[in-house]
Amino acid sequence: MIEPHAPAPPGTPTPWAGPARLPVQPSTGRFLVLACVFVCAACGLVYELELVALASYLIGDSVTQASVVLSVMVFAMGIGSLAAKRLRWRAAAGFGAIEATLALVGGCSAMALYAVFAWTGDWGGLWASGPRWLLVAFSLTIGLLIGAEVPLLMELIQRIRRQDAGGAVADLFAADYVGALVGGLAFPFLLLPLLGQLTGALLTGAVNAVAGGTLVLGLFRRDLTRRARWLLLIANLAVLGVLAAAAVLVDDFEQAARHAVYGHDVRVALQTGTQEIVLTGGTGGRPLDLYLDGRLRVGRDETRYHEALVHPAMNGRHARVLILGGGDGLAAREVLRHPGVRRVDVVELDAAVVRLARHDPALSKLNRHAYDDPRVHVTTADAFRWLRTAPTSTYDVVISDLPDPGITASTKLYSQEFYGLARRALAPGGRLMVHAGPFATRPRVFWTVVATLRAAGLHTTPYRVGGRDSGFAAGPDRTADESRAARDWGFVLASARTAPSLGLDPHAPPPQTLAPASLAMDARAATRTRVTDLPPSTLVHPRY
């Protein structure tokens, strides 16, 4: 903060060098500086949101990623502001250099992070892993540069017209906060859906470079030496050239990165408003894999998973069945194998998954064209929101085929409140089946699901089923790397009256991979590893 009337200590240089020599009227110059503040603030917030979104997608656990990125950036902004005090007497040149650097680093940050993820795959484990530190490094660097803008912009404003420090701060922060609002709204509603994460970041960097370069080279060019003007011009043109080249190559880059993650057999790659959907294989005898946000949801062992999810719950009345999630149609396929099923309601958040399950030849063949059955009815909705208005005491069976509780976005779908709503939808004697994620690798999460179901007034029968080939549906772990793939799945069968027994419907075709004896062994194996005294997970206190 500048104190215009406070005398500097003896021997201390002062940044005030008289009014700036502007090519426009002071009022116009002041407006242009505040307009640049507005644009730079919008770009800075887009960089922050870009890092949060990309880290949440690549690593999982969006609450942790948002906390890390934002806290590191805010800390770095303070350090950057302190460091920039030394540049106040060369405010114009310093601001121009900072904006060119910020445009390059911020614009290329998403591309660099995605490249490291695609070609190293090393996002698991502790924070000591290199790619996670790269996220911190980008957050720190961008925060330092954003923080350094503030004292330099304050000096530029004061050079146009000296005023009291409070008034200058008010004007500066007003433009800054309004710009942040515009950037914060533009990212989810404009940049992300229309351009995607990579192109959106590159465009933001270009806008940042143009705004900073135009202000310094246009409005404050008389404050720069000839050499400084040429250096800033060359630097900004170089940054714009790098960003433009990256934008031209971004489609080829995404394709190469996708092949690095999923292999060279990608048939379908969609970015919906909800998630990224990738289908690989399914033709020429190659196995079909379905990835949602980079996590393998349908793999070579899907039959074992879906039979273990569905068939124990169908041992009893099953005229009306509700499937929460399961847009791929594979849980519905197993439900329809049982005689006596009159209606199957599927509640899926992403309509694009259902469209693929209906029309993709390989996936529709795998689900045996379940969506062509007139008994199957699909609703596109959030499962939690839908259950709040669902008919009560209606369903004989409710199957929760949802993303694992280790993913932050799924935490509410494994809460006591959610299971209370599911219990309300059950008919008397109805059964609820919950997929509770990998059992061996995250036993505490599994038993927290059990504790949460019990807190909702349900009696539980937990069990686990081992995979034979490759694991999938492994929550926040990146299962494209089979060395870290889940090797089993945990399930919980629950009922409002008594703990349901594990068994198979004697009137239905027998499953290929399950038998009553193996189910009993799986239940005993799960019980031996019980973790006791775990509190339930709620909306306001998630435990996963």
Q: What composes the largest sheet?
A: 7 strands, mixed
Shape from CA axes? Answer: elongated
Number of domains: 2
Number of helices: 14
Order of helices and strands: HHHHHHEEEEHEHEHHEHEHEHEEH
CATH architecture of the largest domain: Up-down Bundle
- Low-confidence parts lasting 5 or more residues at pLDDT below 50? 1-16, 123-128, 473-485
The CATH topology of the largest domain is: Growth Hormone, Chain: A
Report the portion of residues in β strands.
5-15%
Number of DSSP strand runs: 11
Q: How are the strands of the biggest sheet laid out side by side?
A: 7-6-5-8-9-11-10
Distance between the termini: 44 Å
Kindly state the percentage of residues in helix.
40-55%
Structural class: alpha/beta
- CATH class wording of the largest domain: Mainly Alpha
Mean pLDDT: 87
Explain what this protein looks like in three dimensions:
This protein folds into two domains: 26-261, Growth Hormone, Chain: A (Up-down Bundle), CATH 1.20.1250; 298-527, Vaccinia Virus protein VP39 (Rossmann fold), CATH 3.40.50. Helix content is 51%, strand content 13%. The radius of gyration is 29 Å and the shape is elongated. With 544 residues, it is α/β, with parallel strands linked by helices. Residues 1-16, 123-128 and 473-485 have low confidence and may be disordered. The strands form two sheets. A seven-stranded mixed sheet has the order 7-6-5-8-9-11-10, with helices on both faces. Strand 1 and strand 2 form a beta hairpin. Helix 3 (91-120) packs antiparallel against helix 4 and helix 5 (165-219) crosses helix 6 (226-262).
